[in-house]
Structure formats: C-alpha cells, structure tokens
Specification:
The chain has one domain. The protein is about 95% helix and about 0% strand. The protein has 3 helices and no strands. It has helices at about 5-50, 50-55, 60-99. The longest helix is centred in the N-terminal third of the chain and has 46 residues, at about 5-50.
Length: about 100
C-alpha cells in the first residue's frame, strides 16, 4: 500500500471517529433533556391523578422515562452522524472538483 493511500485511509478513519463522537455527544445531551422532559409529567401525574397512581407502578414509570431517553439518544445520534457524513462527502466532492 502506498503512503498516499495509507495517509488517505488514516484521514478518513480519523474523520469517521470524529463524526461518531459528535453523534454520541449530541445523543447524550438529547437523552438528558428527554429524561427530564419525560420524568416531570410522569412523576407529577402519578402524584395527582388517581388512575396513574393506581396503574403506574415504579417499573412502569421507569419504563416510560427510559423509553423517551433512549429514543431521543438514537434519533439525535443518527441524525448527527448522517449530517456529518453528508457534510464531509460534499466537502470531498468539492475538493475533487477543484483539482
């Protein structure tokens, strides 16, 4: 393998790692926000509504909150990685157009 292709592969690998790291960080932030946004009404409804007090045990409450956090994490992480990949692929095509 030539040194040019090796350097190109190393650069692509570094770019992919950065994209995935950005996705993980954005997903984690979204999960924290979603956890708070789901926990407040869930816990408030269990305290105030007789139906919720009767039917939503602690396991159900935790399931509601963790489902919201998990969905937010995966949706935002996926969108962030795809946006980064799209941006980087357009950047690579623009560089090749210049040559």
């Amino acid at each position: 393998m030539s040194s040019v292709t090796r350097a190109s592969l190393d650069q692509k690998l570094a770019l992919a790692k950065r994209c995935s790291h950005e996705g993980v960080m954005a997903g984690a932030k979204a999960a924290v926000v979603a956890t708070v946004a789901a926990a407040v009404p869930t816990l408030a409804s269990v305290r105030m509504l007789p139906w919720a007090r009767t039917n939503l045990n602690p396991t159900a409450q935790a399931l509601i909150i963790s489902t919201a956090a998990g969905m937010a994490y995966f949706i935002v992480a996926d969108k962030t990685v795809l946006a980064s990949a799209r941006k980087n692929s357009f950047g690579a095509s623009n560089k090749s157009d210049m040559i």
